[in-house]
Amino acid sequence: MAMGTTIIRLTAILLAVSLTPALAQKTAPAEDPASQEQVQSDVSTREIAIQSNFTGVEILIFGSVDFSDSRTPGEGAYDVIAVVRGPDEPIIVRKKERVAGIWVNGPGKTYGDVPGFYAVLSTRPVRAIASDEALQELGIGLIDLDFGRGTASSTPEQAYRSAMIRLKKEKQLFQEHDDGVTFIGRSLFRGTVALPVNVPTGRYTVDVYLFRDGEAASNSQGSLMVTKAGIEEILYDLAFKYPFIYGLLGVIIAVMCGLVGWFAFRRD
Question: Which of 41, 96, 98, 183 supports an S-S bond with 63, CB 3.0-4.6 Å?
Answer without folding.
Answer: 41
